[in-house]
């Protein structure tokens, strides 16, 4: 007999069989959600659970699970069976509701065991059981609520969005808790067994269409779908497609801005480089540049020319004056040569 592992301890686990029975056996280190042959010598957990409920009822302490304290948050699982789980602040399942006829078939068989499980384990068990009943799990949509407790909400988001559906896809949709309850009430009033996720996704699609602001592209992305009568998985496809288009447009715009900024920087650097070259070649700057470069040859040449001019002036002065002044000029000449050295 085969069964889906939905809970496990150190050595033994609880399995859900194809006919909806719960049995216990060795899990052989398999993962929750796996289906495999169960060893014999099992205990029928469904019968044991019914006996326990009967005992509690006879004692007088039985209270229906769904009448307990209100749920902290909700997770809606849409496969095509649609099931809603209510969980407490410890992320334990305390409520289970069917949202359509197929959902009724699911919880009729696994309701008792899911209560008290961690919400992510319960979600995986529902997906695994639906698959064992030959429902398609290629597109699973999980709609979860959030409130003011950021830590708990982040934990729920992390474990739900980390659920792996094998070859299928799992789409996570977040919605404010009070908004979700409004949509659920609307569904109950209309009496058409419409899962609240339908209203949630339609609202998100409308917001994304406004953000995209491209009627032609929207028509292309929604072609072949009837938005008024779409099932949850189709609405999730549309939402994801529009969101992806918006992300790609933003990415292209960001890359374009980066390229423009890069070209602007290159032009600025080129302009600065050209301005720098112009300053180097400007009149009156050559000598300063040579001084900076330490061109000793040009400096020595300048000093020699100055010395020659001084010497020539002294000689001319010596020729034009009398013998008395000649010695004085010769003295000056020697002095000038000494300074040059």
Automatic annotation (TrEMBL):
It comes from the Bacteria. It comes from Dethiosulfatibacter aminovorans DSM 17477. Residues 274-290 have a biased composition (Basic and acidic residues). This is RsgI N-terminal anti-sigma domain-containing protein. Residues 257-267, 324-341 have a biased composition (Low complexity). GO terms for cellular component: plasma membrane. It is found in: Cell membrane. Keywords: Cell membrane, Membrane, Transmembrane, Transmembrane helix.
